[in-house]
Amino acid sequence: xxxxxxxxxxxxxxxxxxxxxxxxxxxxxxxxxxxxxxxxxxxxxxxxxxxxxxxxxxxxxxxxxxxxxxxxxxxxxxxxxxxxxxxxxxxxxxxxxxxxxxxxxxxxxxxxxxxxxxxxxxxxxxxxxxxxxxxxxxxxxxxxxxxxxxxxxxxxxxxxxxxxxxxxxxxxxxxxxxxxxxxxxxxxxxxxxxxxxxxxxxxxxxxxxxxxxxxxxxxxxxxxxxxxxxxxxxxxxxxxxxxxxxxxxxxxxxxxxxxx
Length: 260
Ligand SMILES: C[S@@+](CC[C@H](N)C(=O)[O-])C[C@H]1O[C@@H](n2cnc3c(N)ncnc32)[C@H](O)[C@@H]1O
Prior knowledge:
Elements: H1 5-25, E1 35-37, E2 44-49, E3 52-55, H2 63-66, H3 71-75, H4 77-84, E4 91-95, H5 103-110, E5 115-120, H6 123-135, E6 141-145, E7 158-164, H7 173-183, E8 184-196, E9 209-210, H8 212-219, E10 224-230, E11 236-243
Parallel strand pairs: 4-5, 4-7, 5-6, 7-8, 8-9
Antiparallel strand pairs: 1-2, 2-3, 8-11, 10-11
Bound molecules: S-adenosylmethionine.
S-adenosylmethionine is lined by residues 57-58, 66, 95-98, 101-102, 119-122, 125, 146, 148, 164-166, 169-170, 176.
């Protein structure tokens, strides 16, 4: 059959439009391979993601440092949590919670009717956190022993997830961000607090800082939109992303699990 030239051109245009729309509507595909390995620096894993070397994580021996009194002045945790507007009754998560320095402060804000999932990959950190939360009689905190690839959070359930000085040392940042996005309710916020990589005077080792540009590049691979970057803290920036509205096709790879 002879297809008229105009019909043929219309069909081609429709195919091109559909392809273009699909490209705009879905997040960009991750780079292949996701990670590369080569000799790195002493602070790093020798593993690279989107041009940055991933830092070694802080072991549980660093827990006293997380609780140092001068941290109040250096990091201003109250100012940080004020900026996030946590409300009573909300379900939130402190991913990479360590000793729970931020966890109990979040728990006070969500109150007894709320929930704070406090995750960490080190059983020793979870044990320290559990002791600290019991001392404060905070029953709304759910300690979660997670894995480096999966935050082990409930799906479509959270209003807010924060990571304070954690994301740069996640061994699988792509999988972690994917799992955290799936854990958020549509419209829920993912907040990364990192020492500012742009500021040379911030007295933290280079691999333990991140630039705003790098964080945004990495989050652009997910179903997230950037909302704002707060610079009110002395040394860190507060990068706020929101899960796009609508059901995400992404599911976490492992079901949520509470630490024993
Ligand atoms: C520098 S500490 C910060 C602890 C806490 N956020 C704070 O500000 O006090 C980083 C913590 O992140 C944890 N961590 C590293 N990778 C993780 C991951 N993929 N999932 C959950 N926790 C992780 C480490 O075990 C460590 O306890």
